[in-house]
Design a protein that fits this description.
With 269 residues, this protein is mainly alpha-helical. Helix content is 73%, strand content 0%. Helix 1 runs antiparallel to helix 11 and helix 2 packs parallel to helix 11. The longest helix has 41 residues. The two termini are 34 Å apart.
Length: 269
Amino acid sequence: MRIARFVVLLAFVLLFLMPVYVLFVTSFKSLQEADPSSAWNLPGQWSTQGWSAAWESLRGGLENSVKIAVTGSLISAVLGSLNGYVLSKWRFPGADAVFTLFLFGMFIPYQAVMIPLAGLLTDMELVGTIRGLVLAHVVYGIPICTLIFRNYYVTIPDELIEAARVDGAGMLRTYASIVLPVSGPAFAVTLIWQFTSMWNDFLFAVFLGAPDSWPVTVMLNNTAGSGAVAVQYNQQMASALLASLPTLLVYLLLGRFFMRGLMAGALKG
């Protein structure tokens, strides 16, 4: 039974890695050698031509994506932590109703708010800017961040909060001294979640952005039609790998912290 389970899992892994293999080997082929008929073949001569072209075409988009994803995920995590703390440990009349309204924000599709959001950003003179994209992602990410932190903070014993109050600590002092030091798992979950979501976003970027603020997802889409005579498969495959490397590295480096955060109660009710 154990061997059969291992064989099934190995088959799924190989099935998942098949397109990654094609992406990888094609990205190192020359333009003449990169052809769908020989997609499974190893390069006859390894070349970085596709990677160089991909870097030149995506460099600006990568920089914009880093600015959007890093800034937006940090702001979302901080706001979600503060909201979760107030809704779980510093409750007020109607806290459950407010939390329910936060949850409603998780189920509102992007398409439903796109037109009013574009109008709002236009009035604020933020449409087509990186700041506008960061603001849109932060606002849309607050519900899920609040949910993660609120459910994580519920697992913190109330006796610790009461002891801090008895010692004269106020709301912010209690948060800074008691709650924040044990918030590492929840921050790990939230940062990874938000970073991945913002890095992979396309709809907000293409609808609310401009050429100067386009992230890597929009630039990657634009490379799909590049090549007036021949389709530059090597550049396209290299671009796809280059655009996915940051999120892949985040999961490889921080994946264990993500799982610890989930197991520690970050998504428990």
